[in-house]
Amino acid sequence: MDSKVKVRKFIEDNLIKYDEEINFSDEDNIFSMGFVNSLFAMKLLNYMESEFCITVESDEMELSNFTSVNSIVRYLKNKEKCK
């Protein structure tokens, strides 16, 4: 399973669901759409670190890195380049 599929599945499985049919694109800002909160953000960081064997440094904790499936995948690809 590629990183985009893994990230999207994690987000879908952990969203705050008020409606059974939640649709969002890979570019949608899941924070501004009200699907996630600060607890989810911490779960997301923990998931990324364990699933992709990375460390999210404190200076990288900018919301823009984690607002959408695509922004998370871009962040992960940049981390891979640094290894």
Layout of strands and helices, then pairs:
Layout lengths: L2 H12 L23 H15 L16 H14 L1
Write structural notes for this entry.
With 83 residues, the protein is mainly α. It has a domain at 1-7 and 40-82. Helix content is 49%, strand content 0%. It is built from three helices and no strands. It has helices at residues 3-14, 38-52, 69-82. The chain is globular, with a radius of gyration of 12 Å. The relative contact order is 0.18. The model has no long low-confidence stretch (mean pLDDT 89).
Task: Output the keywords.
83 residues; mainly alpha; 3 helices; ACP-like_sf; PP-bd_ACP
In short:
InterPro entries: ACP-like_sf, PP-bd_ACP. The chain is mainly alpha-helical and about 80 residues long.
Please state the overall shape, judged from the principal axes of the Cα atoms.
Answer: globular
Number of distinct beta strands: 0
Helix content estimate = 40-55%
Assess the beta-strand content as a share of residues.
Answer: under 5%
Q: Would you tell me the structural class of the helices and strands?
A: mainly alpha
State the separation between the terminal residues, measured CA to CA.
21 Å
Uncertain ranges: none
Radius of gyration, whole Å: 12 Å
Succession of helices and strands: HHH
Mean pLDDT: 89
| Largest sheet entry | none
Question: In DSSP terms, counting alpha (H) and pi (I) runs of 4 or more, how many helices?
Answer: 3
Pfam families: PP-binding
InterPro entries: ACP-like_sf, PP-bd_ACP
